[in-house]
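User: I need a structural model of eEF-1B gamma from Plectus sambesii for a docking pre-check later this week. Nothing fancy, just the predicted structure tokens so I can convert them on my end. Input:
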Amino acid sequence: MTKGKLYGDAANFRTQKVLAAAKYGKADITVVTEQPPHDKFPLGLTPAYEEGKTLLFGAESIALHVGGQAVKGQTPELFAEVVQWLQWAEGQLVPNVLGFVLPSVSAVQVDKKTIDDSKAELLAQLRILNDFLLSRTFLVGERISLADISVALDLLPAYQHVLDSSTRSSLTNVNRWFQTVINQPHVKEVVGDVRLCETASQFCSNKYKELSAKICKSQPKGGHDDHAKD
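Assistant: Understood. Predicted structure tokens for eEF-1B gamma:
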């Protein structure tokens, strides 16, 4: 059984990818909230993973390691498909999720056009995904893989904060797939009961000031997260 130390926030969707994958791979992981040691992780990025001489950063790479064959697909060809979904989500999907969600929950302050652009791009991507999932239960093959776990958790902040019931109504296939993934026993052990938003969150200047003050006060010296938190 794999045993390792995971540096990260257990409530963050990126860390949760690793924890869910670890359930499938039967890996024994201890979550550590402190910053990863600089001598081992000079980039200071989280999540970061330490297992003996194995040092990894980045949710997807760590999840592939701790999840093992159980999340990689059954053949080399299917594994390649898993990786392509991870690359697409990290490069295309996540920037739009965070570009829409973070201002909406008052975590960052940007102009309305930037938010609208991220929203439009995200919904366009979800419409494509909706068509792709029309006759599929999972993204790759006939069983759950890291592609499903990772992409679903990338979308988790959006489902919790900005994809309201009206917006979701046209994404029936994505909704079905998302619910299937987050209700898998191993995934649900990590994320719990997911409550979908009924009304999209809106930016609040007072809340933004409060959050900014808290972040400044709690910011550790040295090291940083590789991505903004939901």
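Before docking, keep this in mind: The chain has two domains: 3-70, 73-191.
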